[in-house]
Amino acid sequence: MSHESPFSLRAEQKERKQDLPDLNHAFGQFLDEVYNPLRGRRSSLLTGRQQEILELLARGRSMVEIAKALEVTQSSVDTSIYSSKPSKKGLFLRLGVNSREEAVLKAVTLGELDLQSAVFEEGLDLNRFPLLDNQKQDILFSLIKSGGKERSNMVISQELSVTEESVNVQSPAIYRELGVRSRPQAALFGNAVLLSASFLQG
């Protein structure tokens, strides 16, 4: 089962690079004309600390790296993300999500994430996406299907009619080829490609 990628960026098109859109340029236009103006008018659902954690999650940082960057304990980071106490709602509870990749994608939808920083300042190149082979493109978009809700490699393999071992092997390769460090950052990358596609298609 194949899920058609934006612009049908399949193998035959990679031989005609002049036919491929500049995804970085399109994403920059989307940020300037759509996302940033809307983001500037919204009220945040998150605390300042949760916002900092979210930005670092989107940049592919691990829990240990986040704690070190914020100069707090990992237990403190865990509480800021996972707490279900009504008096101290965690990031997941505030956003209504159950995974880090889902948190990143929901934050984009709500305008909670600084996409300019998360994508361009982090050095992500969206034009690497068309260079992925067809199966890797399918795996990436299966990952972010349903807004990033928990989707194990087994679920992805069943959806794409490939072996789970194939997904296990391909996932790290996707990260390397896209220049991302984690599953949440891969989800952000794929979502940025989709946003660029939607913007170009009007």
The total beta strand count reads 2
Sheet-strand content, in percent, reads: under 5%
| Helical amount | 55-70%
Instruction: Return the CATH class of the largest domain.
Output: Mainly Alpha
Query: Which stretches are low in confidence, meaning pLDDT under 50 for 5 or more residues running?
Result: none
The CATH homologous superfamily of the largest domain is called: Winged helix-like DNA-binding domain superfamily/Winged helix DNA-binding domain
SS element count, helices: 12
SSE sequence, one letter per element: HHHHHEEHHHHHHH
Q: Name the average pLDDT.
A: 88
Shape: globular
Briefly note the CATH topology name of the largest domain: Arc Repressor Mutant, subunit A
- Category by helix and strand content: mainly alpha
- Cα radius of gyration in angstroms: 17 Å
Number of domains: 2
> Architecture of the largest domain, CATH level 2?
Orthogonal Bundle
